[in-house]
């Protein structure tokens, strides 16, 4: 039977999940225009790199990578960014790069830095797993509130828009650009990776982070590590992570798995030793994490995310005594 959370545990878990996007103090706002700078990975494939920061009023929430692919039928996007304004800038960029309208938009998961740009696109072009759509329904309004607090006026006019198409395991072919969806879980209960059969590029979403500490508000650490092992077994020419640089090789999957193993061990040991949350947050991290952006910041938030899970799974249920 699934453990029953106490009211305190439920409130803490909800608060820590929302804190993913509104813990950082707001910075001074820049002019409200997203200057998207696409990097060409190969012919017909571009990525706009997200900032290696937490969401704030300087970056307008643009911290996630977004991909643009060209096809004979039109532009294909992977994720839409954090706001209506970002989505509009992304649509304009996609049309500029490809000379065609947007025909498909895939969402890799339900976190707000990846899906609040939906509003700029025809909902009929938006596609996601059913789990992602369910997550958007469950958390969308709360995410909207936290994004407005964290990113400020960048979010003006942004509303939640749900996809009309449900992604299954069947590949989609857009006039020679064949994309294979790969449903996984771990970062959230429903994550989507996409494999471009034309180029061999694997778009991993937030299952893979590189040189930026992973976020864990909805994470199942063990399931995530299994998904990373599965990703590693897929032959590819390059991996595009949800956050961090796109590159060939296994550095992204290895580093993400190593991070998850490290924080699970440190936090689990702290819990077993009876340390409170503030004591667990103060524990040292391995030396290798010094080169990882936001390592201390995300570790402390992971303590907030994972402690309630440990309480729910390891503490005895008072209703079974």
TrEMBL record:
The keyword Signal appears for this protein: yes
Protein family: Belongs to the metallo-beta-lactamase superfamily. Class-B beta-lactamase family.
Protein name per the record: Beta-lactamase
Signal peptide (UniProt feature, chain positions): 1-29
Residues covered by the Metallo-beta-lactamase domain: 63-243
Entry-linked InterPro entries: Metallo-B-lactamas (IPR001279), NDM-1-like (IPR050855), RibonucZ/Hydroxyglut_hydro (IPR036866), SoxH-rel_PQQ_1 (IPR030811)
Gene Ontology BP terms: antibiotic catabolic process
Keywords attached to this entry: Signal
